[in-house]
Amino acid sequence: MIVSQLSDTGVTIDAPAKINLFLEVLNKRPDGYHDINSVFQAVSLYDRLEFTVTEETSISIDLVERNTVSAGKDNLIALAYQLMKERYGLRRGLKVRLEKRIPVAAGLGGGSSDGAATIAACNMLFKTGLEKGEMMALSAHIGSDMPFFFSSGQAHVSGRGEELREVELPTDYAVVLVNPSFGLSTSAGYASLKRDLTMSKNPFNLAACPTAEELIGSLHSCGNDFEEVHVKSHPELGEIRDELSRCGASLARMTGSGPTMFGLFYRAPDNIKEEFVGRGNWQIFTVLPVTLPAQV
Q1: Right CATH number for 174-287 from 3.40.50.300, 3.30.70.890, 3.90.550.10, 3.40.50.1100?
Q2: pLDDT, tens only, 73-131
Q3: 145 catalytic per annotation
Q4: Which CATH class is domain 2-166?
């Protein structure tokens, strides 16, 4: 996340999206979650959150535009504030102005990123004195993807998503995101994979990749375990993947549990949106992989 303005009474944070460069679902855990093996990469698509301290001991969320995201108590922003309030006895509240740019329920981690930004905002504005590791551990109680957004923006992710090992990867390539006009159920996606407690396999290990060419070449040796399941039930996703490849993507696949597809390009393609005209009600973004400043 990127802090762009900070005062005693307010802070503005740009909360990034992420993509899964690959994603393996290994086995079902006794707690009902699944172990995963993945590498997360932050990208330059951001929600903007403006936090202002209020005298009320509650949180309110003001959406800049009408959006499918909830502004109620189930929003991860609200859940993050409530957790900080319960743990650290916050005596004041927050008003949050949310400019939602990351598609909702898209496999891009937008909600988790917003929740992580809220924990960071509370830490700064209410001076709770938490270090990065403490914020990461706290955030894992709300969402498995949330700890990642306190990292450098590049991490090997395991466990149910909360175990991170930061990595260094090249960023000199472009990413095209294509989000279709429908959502997918994460829980249904996991159920369709039919993993059980005894299933195991050797997880893919992404070797050191000093160049973008080596990185993309290595990624061809793995994939996203959700992709073929969802392509079978939603052929439109296969069309998006094929169109990205036709436009010159060196790699095209799904991020997270979908439905967003992404293409990796050695050079940002020209007029990419024109290539998709008439192909569907799709949102298209050309972004870059980014690293993030340390959060302390």
Answers
A1: 3.30.70.890
A2: 789 999 999 999 999 999 999 999 999 999 988 999 999 999 999 999 999 999 999 99
A3: yes
A4: alpha beta
Domain layout of the chain by residue ranges: 2-166, 174-287
Beta bridge partners of 19: 41
What pTM does this model have? 0.92
242 is catalytic: no
The residue annotated as part of the active site, out of 47, 114, 145, 225, is 145
| DSSP codes joined into one string, 124-176 | HHTT----HHHHHHHHTTT-TTGGGGGS-SEEEEETTTTEEEE------SEEE
Active site residue: 18, 28, 85, 100, which one?
Answer: 18
